[in-house]
Amino acid sequence: MVSNFHSNLSKDLSLILYDADDYNVIIQVGDNENIKEFHAHSVILRARSSYFKGAFSKGWITNENSMIVFKKPNITPIIFDMILTYIYTGELDLTDDLDEDILGLLVATDELLLEELFNYVQDYLIRERSIWIHENLVQVLHTVFKLVRCEKLRDYCFELICLDPKPFITSKEFLSLDKDILYDLLERSDLQIEEIDAWDYLIKWGIKQTPSLKSKNGDIIKWNNKNYEELKELKKTLNEFIPLIRFTKIPPADYFDKVRPYKMIIPYNINDEIEEFYYKGKLPKITSFSPRKRIILKVESKIIQSTQFNIINNWINRKNNSIVILNKNDILNNFKLIYRKSRDGIKIIRNICSGQGSILILIKLKHSEEIFGGYNSIGWPKCISRNKYLFSTESFIFLFEDKNDTQNMVINRVAVPSCAIYDCPIVITFGAGDLELDYEYLSISPSGYYGLIDGNAIDGGDIKFEVDDIEIFRVN
């Protein structure tokens, strides 16, 4: 049997990195005022990186006083320190590092051919820094889009955008989006966007990208005659993008008001087909892109948004990402509204759930934006139990900060399956009171589910809320 002594090996190699005086490589990294010099050993760099092996043998270096001098101005000192730590010790802790530095580390490891570290950093960003990625999609895409090996992170960004594109296309950063990125985005059939919105924001992007039109807005009605010459410039900017718009999916009224005024920028053959479609109903041949696939769940709710139903759908399918992607391969559950308090009045909640199968409950509070909920995978039986626990491994309770929250939500899965649901005649109870609901009040008391659903509550105490509205869905 082989014995491992890796801990001492890592410790000793770190001493070589930081304390040894027998180095033979000087690496200068950074630029301007942010330059730092690192000392290293060519034998270790060659052994750990095929990039350095090639660099030291192909004359990419200079020699000064028997010392190899290597310059990397495109890598910052902070990032290169991470890289040397990994090369010498095989260890790296990114917990306290800035998101931008981790993204820079990904780019640097791609260049230096450190495949193991590259794969780890790419997965780490998706797994641990997904919220930051979601908030900085343009920056991330501009950084990794043309790096072949960053395909996983690039696709992750595109899927985030496709799931809910409105925040992305309405951001200021969108107008500076690289044209190749925009092309790939509009080409996708899973982009969850109304086609007239895709057209509107393409026009805004095009105006921003056309120097002679930068001071103009997107309302062509307000332009004067001089601007029609400038439309020729806009046509050049958008020429390759126009065929990506699914014009047949734009309602006639929107076509008349928002597309027709820009007919001058649409290639003649495409414009003729579009007009023939709207006037005669004849389907185009040239603009033959398939319709976009609608994968966002459309659910009848006044409490939460469709994107939050996507998150709940994925929780039901055991996907617990902080930013949840719904794609064509996922199981789409059907949520059928069977009760809304504001519509159907005061009723015994337990009776409504009887014999309905799996149940999702949403609870809107009075005097608060928070939204509580619970999912019972086994449902409540027709025959009401008398104070009996029901077994479930898949039930959970959850909390959204508000009706738009897709980042800070909390899910607590059942910790004691034998006590997942407490069945009694009147109220709905998850666990031993973890979440207890009648038509008027919601009570929280941590017990049989992982974690404490209300971060403001005191461990071991009961919290009671007044209910504003309740929605109950049968889940198929």
UniProtKB/TrEMBL annotation:
<dbReference type="InterPro" id="IPR011333">
    <property type="entry name" value="SKP1/BTB/POZ_sf"/>
</dbReference>
<dbReference type="InterPro" id="IPR000210">
    <property type="entry name" value="BTB/POZ_dom"/>
</dbReference>
<dbReference type="Pfam" id="PF07707">
    <property type="entry name" value="BACK"/>
</dbReference>
<dbReference type="InterPro" id="IPR011705">
    <property type="entry name" value="BACK"/>
</dbReference>
<feature type="domain" description="BTB">
    <location>
        <begin position="23"/>
        <end position="96"/>
    </location>
</feature>
<feature type="domain" description="TLDc">
    <location>
        <begin position="302"/>
        <end position="476"/>
    </location>
</feature>
<dbReference type="InterPro" id="IPR006571">
    <property type="entry name" value="TLDc_dom"/>
</dbReference>
<dbReference type="InterPro" id="IPR051481">
    <property type="entry name" value="BTB-POZ/Galectin-3-binding"/>
</dbReference>
<protein>
    <recommendedName>
        <fullName>Serine-enriched protein</fullName>
    </recommendedName>
</protein>
<dbReference type="Pfam" id="PF07534">
    <property type="entry name" value="TLD"/>
</dbReference>
<dbReference type="Pfam" id="PF00651">
    <property type="entry name" value="BTB"/>
</dbReference>
